[in-house]
């Protein structure tokens, strides 16, 4: 088990976003976190990555307690994340966006040759190397999503949390993102993906956790989840 | 413009700027003009120091006037009450204010955007009250007379301080440049762009902000202390004034906060304009109206400042860089055609 949470709770005023979420994700696999809108998936991501502090409960990663730690510490522990509405540094070039993920280094040059080569290789792998000198704000939505992913990968996380990688993306790019996730997973990275696109989820996931009303109601491989009655009930209201 | 020729233009501009600054005292027709030059350089140091926080992290502080005031009073008090040599007092004052910036920054940098601006204003107002009321220590509204470090005639005094300010400006610019090209600087700039995103990528944003705030406070205090030694008389109303902070912000924004020399250019323009307006319309608050107007014009027409606006202008006339609907520039198209022939 890599990433685990125990009885995670978070309420915003009267709204309970997480209601005792006890979940474990599998190391080295593509894990998916699905559920209807408002089921607590993004809040769960935010609690896990330290962006918001849970009211109670515990987050552990490879046995290490990360509850309430600052986001940059959690990132350094090996958990990289993207944001639901993709976030880049708008007035930096694509190359700088990726270089900004190089952990620390004080007064050493931000544009050391080795770092630039590594950053360019990520941009190349994601197919946006021709945009290296363009500012992120001038790039299309799909290109920005790829850029955000390149930045996260530059930090070399062992586990990558993707919040809706398919959101607002055209079918061709969707296939590319799906294939890329499988490739990166084959190289040893663990993925946890929040996603609404069921075709993508079913085709790339090894393990699926279904959320409803702030807690998991089912989990298992795609074949099991597809026919689980509770899942159908939560999604379709039947 | 290709990289090499851009570098030549940049180096040329630096040489011209530096030469202009260094030659000015020999050209100044009278001591008053020379003293205005000292004031403008003082503003240039303040604006460059402010730009460590404002330019890199995007946190707009209106409280830097207070940090300069603290530097001035610390220098003056160390020289008069503790009897320290002037420049030892100045150095210690810089360190003391930098140290004080740690708790100040820890409190102020917790909030962002408009809240940070208001906290920074509060700093000025609180210190103004303290330094006015605590007359037994600070001299209160009667002021604090700071002994002059050199026994010189007035023009010579101005000339020496002109070069001291120029030296301090050089050091501040050098440090800004070093940070700008460093990983630390890139981390700071990512905070300016999107703080939460920077944090999620592993940048310890709070520590980064605090470090650069302390550096900024140190330089600001040195400028304030040097001013105290030059001017020789401190009054809380002028040392802890919202106006000082606002002028400095205006200068940095006017020149361009993303450019090394932006604040210097801004200080040259706004500083000279302020002096001019004070001479011509000294009895009226017209210089404030003019400053406000200038700020409005900059925000409307050159939101990125003068230097980037000039850069854009040059690019507009450089037809080889124009891109067509094909998303290739004219120069690239020409190369492609050449290759095809």
From TrEMBL, chain A:
<dbReference type="InterPro" id="IPR003439">
    <property type="entry name" value="ABC_transporter-like_ATP-bd"/>
</dbReference>
<dbReference type="InterPro" id="IPR051120">
    <property type="entry name" value="ABC_AA/LPS_Transport"/>
</dbReference>
<dbReference type="InterPro" id="IPR027417">
    <property type="entry name" value="P-loop_NTPase"/>
</dbReference>
<dbReference type="Pfam" id="PF12399">
    <property type="entry name" value="BCA_ABC_TP_C"/>
</dbReference>
<dbReference type="Pfam" id="PF00005">
    <property type="entry name" value="ABC_tran"/>
</dbReference>
<dbReference type="InterPro" id="IPR032823">
    <property type="entry name" value="BCA_ABC_TP_C"/>
</dbReference>
<dbReference type="GO" id="GO:0005524">
    <property type="term" value="F:ATP binding"/>
</dbReference>
<keyword id="KW-0813">Transport</keyword>
<keyword id="KW-0067">ATP-binding</keyword>
<protein>
    <submittedName>
        <fullName>ABC transporter ATP-binding protein</fullName>
    </submittedName>
</protein>
<feature type="domain" description="ABC transporter">
    <location>
        <begin position="3"/>
        <end position="238"/>
    </location>
</feature>
<keyword id="KW-0547">Nucleotide-binding</keyword>
TrEMBL record, chain B:
<dbReference type="Pfam" id="PF02653">
    <property type="entry name" value="BPD_transp_2"/>
</dbReference>
<keyword id="KW-0472">Membrane</keyword>
<feature type="transmembrane region" description="Helical">
    <location>
        <begin position="7"/>
        <end position="27"/>
    </location>
</feature>
<feature type="transmembrane region" description="Helical">
    <location>
        <begin position="60"/>
        <end position="80"/>
    </location>
</feature>
<feature type="transmembrane region" description="Helical">
    <location>
        <begin position="116"/>
        <end position="140"/>
    </location>
</feature>
<dbReference type="InterPro" id="IPR001851">
    <property type="entry name" value="ABC_transp_permease"/>
</dbReference>
<keyword id="KW-1003">Cell membrane</keyword>
<protein>
    <submittedName>
        <fullName>Branched-chain amino acid ABC transporter permease</fullName>
    </submittedName>
</protein>
<feature type="transmembrane region" description="Helical">
    <location>
        <begin position="260"/>
        <end position="277"/>
    </location>
</feature>
<keyword id="KW-0812">Transmembrane</keyword>
<feature type="transmembrane region" description="Helical">
    <location>
        <begin position="86"/>
        <end position="109"/>
    </location>
</feature>
<feature type="transmembrane region" description="Helical">
    <location>
        <begin position="33"/>
        <end position="53"/>
    </location>
</feature>
<keyword id="KW-1133">Transmembrane helix</keyword>
<feature type="transmembrane region" description="Helical">
    <location>
        <begin position="289"/>
        <end position="314"/>
    </location>
</feature>
<feature type="transmembrane region" description="Helical">
    <location>
        <begin position="210"/>
        <end position="230"/>
    </location>
</feature>
<feature type="transmembrane region" description="Helical">
    <location>
        <begin position="160"/>
        <end position="179"/>
    </location>
</feature>
<dbReference type="InterPro" id="IPR043428">
    <property type="entry name" value="LivM-like"/>
</dbReference>
<feature type="transmembrane region" description="Helical">
    <location>
        <begin position="236"/>
        <end position="253"/>
    </location>
</feature>
């Amino acid at each position: 088990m890599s990433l685990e949470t125990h009885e995670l709770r978070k309420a915003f005023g009267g709204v309970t976003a997480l209601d005792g979420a006890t979940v474990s994700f599998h190391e080295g696999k593509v894990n998916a976190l699905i559920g209807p809108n408002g089921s607590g998936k993004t809040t769960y991501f935010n609690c896990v990555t330290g962006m918001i502090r849970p009211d109670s409960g515990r987050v552990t990663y490879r046995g290490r307690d990360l509850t309430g730690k600052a986001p940059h510490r959690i990132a350094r522990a090996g958990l990289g994340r993207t944001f639901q509405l993709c976030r880049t540094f708008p007035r930096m070039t694509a190359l700088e966006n990726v270089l900004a993920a190089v952990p620390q280094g004080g007064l050493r040059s931000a544009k050391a040759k080795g770092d630039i080569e590594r950053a360019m290789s990520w941009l190349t792998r994601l197919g946006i190397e021709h945009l290296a000198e363009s500012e992120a704000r001038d790039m299309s939505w799909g290109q920005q999503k790829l850029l955000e992913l390149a930045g996260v990968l530059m930090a070399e996380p062992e586990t990558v949390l993707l919040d809706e990688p398919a959101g607002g993306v055209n079918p061709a790019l969707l296939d590319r993102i799906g294939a890329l996730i499988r490739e990166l997973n084959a190289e040893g990275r663990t993925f946890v993906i929040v996603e609404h696109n069921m075709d993508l989820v079913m085709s790339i996931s090894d393990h699926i956790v279904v959320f409803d009303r702030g807690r998991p109601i089912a989990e298992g491989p795609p074949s099991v989840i597809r026919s689980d009655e509770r899942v159908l009930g939560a999604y379709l209201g039947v | 413009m290709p990289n090499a020729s851009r570098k030549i233009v940049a180096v040329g501009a630096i040489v011209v700027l530096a030469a202009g600054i260094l030659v000015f005292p020999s050209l100044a027709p009278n001591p008053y003009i020379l003293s205005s030059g000292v004031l403008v350089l003082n503003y240039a140091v303040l604006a460059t120091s402010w730009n460590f926080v404002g330019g890199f992290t995007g946190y707009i502080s209106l409280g830097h006037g207070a940090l300069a005031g603290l530097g001035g009073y610390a220098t003056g008090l160390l020289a008069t009450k503790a009897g320290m040599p002037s420049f030892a007092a100045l150095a210690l004052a810089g360190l003391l204010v930098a140290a004080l910036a740690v708790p100040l920054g820890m409190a102020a940098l917790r909030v962002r955007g408009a809240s940070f601006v208001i906290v920074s204003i509060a700093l000025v107002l609180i210190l103004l009250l303290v330094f006015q009321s605590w007359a037994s220590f600070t001299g209160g509204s009667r002021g604090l007379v700071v002994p002059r470090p050199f026994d010189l005639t007035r023009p010579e005094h101005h000339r020496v301080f002109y070069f001291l300010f120029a030296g301090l400006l050089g050091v501040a610019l050098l440090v800004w440049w070093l940070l700008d090209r460093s990983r630390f600087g890139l981390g700071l700039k990512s905070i300016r762009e999107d703080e939460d995103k920077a944090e999620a990528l592993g940048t310890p944003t709070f520590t980064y902000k605090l470090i650069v705030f302390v550096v900024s406070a140190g330089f600001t205090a040195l400028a304030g202390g040097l001013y105290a030694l030059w001017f020789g008389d401190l009054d809380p109303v002028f040392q802890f004034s919202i106006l000082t902070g606002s002028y400095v912000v205006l200068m940095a924004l006017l020149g361009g906060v993303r450019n090394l020399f932006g604040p210097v250019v801004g200080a040259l323009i706004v500083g000279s304009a302020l002096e001019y307006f004070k001479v011509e319309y000294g009895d009226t608050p017209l210089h404030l109206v003019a400053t406000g107007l200038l700020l409005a014009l900059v925000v409307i027409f050159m939101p990125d400042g003068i230097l980037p606006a000039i850069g854009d202008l040059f690019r507009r006339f450089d037809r080889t860089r124009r891109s067509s609907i094909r998303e290739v520039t004219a120069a690239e198209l020409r190369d492609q055609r050449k290759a095809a022939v």
